[in-house]
Amino acid sequence: MSVLGEPLRLGPRVVRNRIVFPAHLTNAAVARRPSAQHAAYYGARAAGGVGMVITEEQSVDPADRPYEKLVDGTDPAVVPGYRAIADAVHAHGALVLAQLGHNGGQSSSLYSRAPVDGADDEPDPMFREVPRPLSDAGLARLVDGFGLVAEHVVAGGLDGVEIQCSQASLIRQLFSARSSRALPFLVAVLRAVRSAVGPDGVLGVRVQGDEGFAGGLATSDAVAVAVAVETLVDYVNTAVGVATRTLPLIEPPMGVPAGYAAHVPSAVRAAVSVPVLGVGRFTTPEQAREAVASGSCDLVGVVRGQIADPGFATKALRGGRVRRCIGCNQECIARVGLNQRLGCAVNPAAGRESSVAANGYLAASTRTTSPFARVLVVGGGPAGLAAAVAAARDGHAVTLAERRDVLGGQLAIASRGPERRELANLVADLAHEARDLGVVVRLRTPVEDVHGIDAVVLATGARPALPAWAGGHARVVDVTEVLTGRVAPSGRVLVVDEGRGHAATSTAELLARRGASVATLTPALVVAGDLAPTLDRERWRRRAAEVGIAEYTDRVVLAAHDGLVLDVLHHLTGEVTPWPADWVVHAGPPTPHVPELVTDVPVFRVGDCLAPRGIDAAVREGTAVRERFSRL
């Protein structure tokens, strides 16, 4: 057994292994109380073998409400919800703690209709509200709030509490402001919570390690805080980034390596005697094992990796291939940011565990239909692969036919762009699952006539569509032509973004790094606007500046003339300007590809051939085809 699988004592309790499911927002609360979805969600990770679950933040002040679905832990009505969570997790042998916190100035009056209480009167860069500085009496009131919520947690049967002093936290803000009240307040909170949880409860603290900006808290500050409170706690958790100012440090997108934050737990662990929990975008069992084996932490936090695959822990300890998180942030970070329940692009069941049967996203071991003799899946992109896996799990005899010589569809192409390589992981993981389930995969196999089959899943995707203004010009091409290597634009290259996603930016960066003089142009207010919700935009802007990519917004291409000169309309002035270029690369919405099939059996369209959308829709619809089979 590796160190990852060894039990570890946390004060009065023993955690069965070193893998933790740390606190993160789910947006699953109902009326500010824990819901059945919380219990099902956390229970699924406990069933998957995790050692300890830490719930999302429970507020210690009813007026603290930065987002609509923050649980109000001060309300006694939360206790039954806590009990349901405890029962769901304990049923599978894991520990479960609740994280307690107050958001301070990183909050909003939108829902509370009350002034925001903060460490000082400095507005947060995201919420931009001027806080009301808390008095000593106000801080004392919050100490009582922490104690009250801890009492509710104990009454609900959870194993303990973690105090949030990082990321979105009033306590972090006090330390960041170098307030003399910070440490006394934290100590008072820890003592009040210890009194509530008693000698049998676990008490942890999550400290801020690196705020990510000049003058902010650094690793040395985390060490100082941890040393100051280690006699009061059973473990120390760590974090980097601030939940508004440097959010991409907390939930980094693909391209950021595993262990990027390891310097914080390593430094803390060297200074304290209690166990230390480290986080840092660990998405594979190998990365989790290395984090603990290297000595950088005693416990390893895996959030998105266990959202993507609830069985991550068991597979990490006993062997098995996980369905990897690809760091796209589309359904977890971006969806929660839109006030929707958390989801996952690679795991359609995530965030829907309590209603999974009703939605057709069933566990791999669950069979819902009598198998057809034969199912043909046409198309080997993410939708087709997901459909093949789902159908094979239900006992159908599945053949997948792909006209190209590789699987993956648009993902196989998109993964060739800078910092997009992990898209290929989803293709590889689905392909392995399909083959393990006995799916027959046939490449270079176009399909027109279908005979001797009981059902067809059409997953033929979408194809590029150049705009009318391109006029058939030979040097106006789609981004896919560049990414596949069919063309190699050079000289002055204009990338026209009419799709708002990664297609334009990754292609522009690829060409710039090859030596082209690249500019991006869009009719929107910003280039690739969809990169902001997934936290990719900041990293893109830094890389664009590094390679000299110019950005032009509020501009519409009207026509392309011989020579290659574009007519470009500037929205704001109405001026039409000639724009010379050696190449124009277009990124825009594709067109569904729906081939004519000769067949008399049911045909189910999924993914982009139904309507071009994102990865999440492709995998979700492919997986849900099993439900559609059951209606026949």
Question: Can you characterise this structure?
Answer:
This protein folds into three domains: 3-323, Alpha-Beta Barrel (TIM Barrel); 365-462 and 594-630, 3-Layer(aba) Sandwich (Rossmann fold), CATH 3.40.50; 468-587, 3-Layer(bba) Sandwich (FAD/NAD(P)-binding domain). By secondary structure, it is of the alpha/beta class. The protein has 20 helices and 28 strands. Helix 7 (263-269) links the parallel strand 11 and strand 12. Residues 357-366 have low confidence and may be disordered. Helix content is 30%, strand content 19%. Its cofactor is [4Fe-4S] cluster; FMN. It comes from Actinomycetospora straminea. It holds the Pfam family FAD_oxidored. Residues 6-316 form the NADH:flavin oxidoreductase/NADH oxidase N-terminal domain.
Tell me the overall shape: globular
Mean pLDDT equals: 94
**Beta content:** 15-25%
Indicate how many domains the architecture comprises: 3
Supply the key terms:
single chain; 632 residues; alpha/beta; TIM Barrel; Rossmann fold; FAD/NAD(P)-binding domain; 3 domains; 8-stranded parallel β-barrel; 5-stranded parallel beta sheet; 30% helix; globular
Element layout with pairings:
Elements: E1 8-10, E2 13-15, E3 19-21, H1 36-47, E4 52-59, E5 71-72, H2 79-90, E6 95-101, E7 117-118, E8 132-133, H3 136-155, E9 160-165, H4 170-176, H5 182-197, E10 202-210, H6 219-229, E11 235-240, H7 263-269, E12 276-278, H8 285-293, E13 299-301, H9 304-308, H10 312-318, H11 333-337, H12 356-359, E14 375-378, H13 382-393, E15 398-401, H14 410-414, H15 423-436, E16 440-442, E17 455-458, E18 462-463, E19 476-478, H16 479-483, E20 492-497, H17 502-513, E21 517-521, H18 537-547, E22 550-552, E23 555-561, E24 565-570, E25 576-580, E26 583-587, E27 591-592, E28 603-605, H19 615-623, H20 625-630
Parallel strand pairs: 3-4, 3-13, 4-5, 4-6, 6-9, 7-8, 9-10, 10-11, 11-12, 12-13, 14-15, 14-17, 15-16, 17-28, 19-26, 20-21, 20-26, 21-22
Antiparallel strand pairs: 1-2, 18-27, 23-24, 24-25
Helix pairs in contact: 1-2, 3-5, 4-5, 6-7, 8-10, 13-15, 13-19, 17-18
